[in-house]
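FAQ: What does the model actually see?

It sees only this:
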Amino acid sequence: MKNSLNILMVMIVLLSSNACNAQIKHTKSTTVKIYGNCEMCEKTIEKAGNEKKVAQVDWNKDTKLATITFDSTKTNTNAILKKIALAGYDSDEFLAPEDAYANLPECCQYERVKKVKNSMTATTMNHDMHEEDMMKEDMKEEMKSNATNTDEEKQTKEEVNQLNSVFNNYFELKDAFVQSDASIVTNTAKKLNATIKAVNMNKLSMDEHMAWMKVVDKITTTTEQISKSNDIEKQRTYFNDLSENIYALIKVAETTTPVYYQHCPMYNDGANWLSKENAIKNPYYGNKMLSCGKTIEVIE
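And it is asked to produce this:
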């Protein structure tokens, strides 16, 4: 009787797994090692990597191996492993940030195989032949895709630098504040909010991904607050918070031109903003004190 029940349970799990995979188009699968201890780890790892109709992760706590099935037109193995690393779990490709690992429950704090040298950016490559062959296959597919369509290559470069659209809309918002026109500020904030929501985290570098995860909720909230207010002074208060979080993001992003981090000593006992030009045009006072402030850092 017990054997019959066990067989039934296995069949249910297999059918459930097949049903999930059937929803994923352009299916590609790979097996990778992800470090963890227990069933709680299993739930966290799978929740971090799973995405409806895009990716399915099945992790085994005994072997530490995860079978990852994904839509190859929408994501890739590295993007999924980045998400799992951000949840606190090392793989042989990406090491979790130290703070993410430290926040795991005590029972989930597995023995780390490799020490993280830089908690924000540390990564390591797996040199066993199986993983190396898989990487080569991925590279071949990418090269084949690029060779057949040069437009896709241009699009990929734009996606890698997609944070530039966020920054450009921020600069436009800063200029709107210089004009001291609440209606222009409102409309520009809406544009910035739409750009923020359009960012695909899977296309970001590891450093950008880390920074984005920390600020995306904050900058989404502040741009919404700016867009919903008709009071220019309240909007400027929200812009102060927005600028601090955009600064944290732009510090790790690839920018094509210098960005000037500027400071006004008068507004709220000191406030900062970012500009594409070194000349001071104060967004907190506009024409009242247009040149009040100074450049305190050049980001290149």
